[in-house]
Amino acid sequence: MELDKILPQDGPSKKEVNRYLNKYKNEYIVIKCGGSVLNDPKLFGKLIEDIVILKKLEFNPIIVHGGGKKINAKLDNKNIKSKFINGLRITSKEIINIVKDVLIDFNTEIVKTFENSSCKAKSFTSDNNSVLLVEPASKELEFVGIPINININIIESAIKENIIPVIAPLGLSKDKQVYNINADTAAGAISKKLKARRLLILSDVEGVLDKNKKLIPEINSEKANDLIVNGIISEGMIPKINNCLDVASNGVKGVVIIDGRKSHSILFELLSDKGAGTLIRQWMN
Predict the structure, then answer these.
(1) Residue 30: which residues within 8 A CB-CB, separation 6 or more?
(2) In a 10 Å sphere around its CB, with 0-12 CB exposed, 13-18 middle and 19+ buried, how is residue 43 labelled?
(3) Are 2 and 57 in contact (CB under 8 A)?
(4) Is the separation of the CB atoms in 185 and 147 below 8 Å?
(5) Contacts for 277 with CB less than 8 Å, ≥ 6 apart
(6) What global pTM score does this model have?
(7) Rounded mean pLDDT of the chain?
(8) 184 has a pLDDT exceeding 60
C-alpha cells in the first residue's frame, strides 16, 4: 500500500498511520454526519475525501447522514413552522413527506459525490434498500420513529462488494409507513447491530468540554454522569451523550464526538496519537 499517494499532506503522519492501520483494517467504522459539514461545500468535499481515504486503507466506512438544515430551509420556503420536543421535530403527515423528499434527494447527492471520486457507494433510504424497521417514538411526535430492528444483511452485502453504504435516517413501520428518525439514534442503532469498532459523530462542536471550555479527550459513564449532575453537560448535549453511552455499552468499542469543521478530523481521530474530539467508552470496574 503506497501511503504517500493516499494520505493528504496536512493529515496524520505516515509513521502514525502505520501504527493504526492494523487496528481498523476491515473493521466497521460508522460515521454520522451532521451540522455544517453537510452544508458547507468545502467541508463536505473534505469529508468525502477523508472517507475515500479510509476505503483505500481497507477500512469499512458506513455513512449515516442528517439533513436538519436542509429540511428547515424547505419548510421555511413553504412557510411551515416546526415545533420540537426534547430536540425532536414534531413530524406531521405534511412534514414527513417533505422530510422524506429532502433526505432522499440529499442521499442521492452524497452517493453521486462518492462516485465522482471513483468510489462505489449505494443509497439506503425508505424507498430503496430500507434497513430501519421502526415503531412510533410517541403519539405527540407523530411520524418520528425509534428503530426496533436493522436489516444488516444488505449493509454487509454492500461492504463485501466494496461499496460504501450511505444511509438516510428514514425508517418504515410494519405497515410500511415512513418515519423520520433522529440521525444520532439511527447511527447508534446501526453501530450496535453491526458491533462496529467505532461510531464517529461529526458535529459543530469540538467534543465534550469541561467547565473551563477545554476539550475532554475521554470520558466513561461515571465521568459523564458527574458532568451532567454538575451542569457541565446540559440541554441538547444530554440526550446525545446518553445515546453515546448506550452505544458504547452495547458492543461498540468506542464512540467519538468530533468537530466536522476541522480539516481531516476523521483521519486524525482514527490514525493519530492525539485523536480528535471526545472518546466515550463504557465504564469498566
Answers:
(1) 61, 62, 64, 187, 190, 191, 194, 196, 198, 199, 200
(2) buried
(3) no
(4) yes
(5) 206, 207, 215, 256, 257, 258, 259, 265, 269
(6) 0.93
(7) 90
(8) yes
